[in-house]
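Q: I'm building a small set of examples for a reading group on sequence design. Run inverse folding on the following structure and report the sequence directly after it, with nothing in between.
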C-alpha cells in the first residue's frame, strides 16, 4: 500500500490508542495523544505505569481498552514494540503506526504478515495532523 493511502486508512478510524503514552509533556508519547485530542479525535492512552495522561484514564494494555480500536500509534522502545504488535494482532487492531524510534523490523514483518496496515520508518503523526505545542 502506498504511504499516503496507508495514512488515510489509519486516520479514518473512529478511535485511536497510543501505546507508550506519557505524563511527561516533553515526550512524544504525550504529544501524540495531545495531537489526536487537538484534532477532535477519540484517543486512549496505554501505559501500564500510569493511571492517567492529560486527564484521560490510562489503560494497561490494548485488551483493557473500553472499546475495540482499529488504529494504534506505537511510541515505545523497539523491544516493547514487538510485544505491543503481538497484542495488537490478538486484539484485531487493523492499523499500526510505529513512530520514529519505535520501529522493530521483526514486528513490522509480523504485522504485515498478519495483514495489518503498517506505517513505519516514515512520517510522524505529529507532522501529518499538524500538532501545535500549547503555550
Amino acid at each position: 500500500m502506498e504511504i499516503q493511502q496507508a495514512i488515510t486508512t489509519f486516520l479514518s478510524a473512529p478511535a485511536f490508542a497510543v501505546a507508550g503514552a506519557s505524563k511527561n509533556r516533553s515526550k512524544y508519547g504525550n504529544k501524540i495523544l495531545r495531537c489526536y485530542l487537538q484534532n477532535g479525535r477519540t484517543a486512549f492512552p496505554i501505559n501500564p505505569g500510569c493511571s492517567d495522561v492529560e486527564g484521560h484514564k490510562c489503560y494497561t494494555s490494548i485488551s483493557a481498552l473500553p472499546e475495540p480500536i482499529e488504529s494504534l500509534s506505537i511510541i515505545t522502545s523497539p523491544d516493547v514494540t514487538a510485544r505491543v504488535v503481538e497484542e495488537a494482532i490478538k486484539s484485531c487492531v487493523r492499523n499500526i503506526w510505529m513512530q520514529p524510534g519505535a520501529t522493530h523490523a521483526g514486528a513490522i514483518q509480523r504485522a504485515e504478515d498478519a495483514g495489518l496496515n503498517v506505517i513505519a520508518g516514515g512520517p510522524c503523526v505529529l507532522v501529518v495532523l499538524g500538532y501545535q505545542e500549547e503555550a
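The mean pLDDT is 95.
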